[in-house]
Amino acid sequence: MDKEIKIRNEEESDYQRVEEITRKCFWNLYIPGCNEHYLVHVMRSHEDFLPALDLVIEVDNQIIGNIMYTRAKLIDESGAEKEILTFGPVCILPEYQRKGYGKKLIEYSFELAVALGYDVIVIFGNPNNYVSRGFKSCKRYNICLENDIYPSAMMVKELKPEVLDGRKWVYHQSPVFEIDEQEAERFDAGLESLEKKYQPSQEEFFIHSHSIIR
């Protein structure tokens, strides 16, 4: 029997469930433990957060994943600014991964982003997960961080073809991503106790997040 799949905006009654899913998906993935669920918790009240692009995906009326977007900006060498998007956290519960749900959720969010007038997304992530969704290295679009750094994990998607004209841009993400580690620890301490431990994906993340393209 076909499963009923629904993508909709997150509602306040979903907050705890979404935070639980985020914690479950990211726990021990990049570091022992995680703080992505705390990021979700504080992101919703930040000025850069975009409620219209705050989405959950349901299978048979149960939330199995979500995606959240914030505003970011590019600044060129003349000082001109361009408002763009970044997304994250994005997650699908482990038992539903590799079944196309993440693809459906991300592609749907792209359509919404275009309808809202956005044309560029910049993210940090594992390229293996995103190049199939049309993301390319930031180097290809001449988009860098300050000090001419082109991280291997920084990728760009044009939502409209050739909207980027090749000029040099510096990427600036929202300050909401500057997590207060102590506050994150306090937030997590009030939740169900989970074991923090090492796993190989943490080394993979370290390599990706510290690699740059020359």
TrEMBL record:
Pfam families: Acetyltransf_1
Molecular function in Gene Ontology: acyltransferase activity, transferring groups other than amino-acyl groups
Sequence ranges assigned to domain N-acetyltransferase in this UniProt record: 5-160
Keyword set includes Transferase: yes
Keywords: Transferase
Organism of derivation: Acetobacterium wieringae
InterPro entries on file: Acyl_CoA_acyltransferase, GNAT_dom
Name by which UniProt lists this protein: Acetyltransferase (GNAT) family protein
SUPFAM superfamilies hit by this protein: Acyl-CoA N-acyltransferases (Nat) (SSF55729)
Keyword Transferase set for record: yes
Entry superkingdom: Bacteria
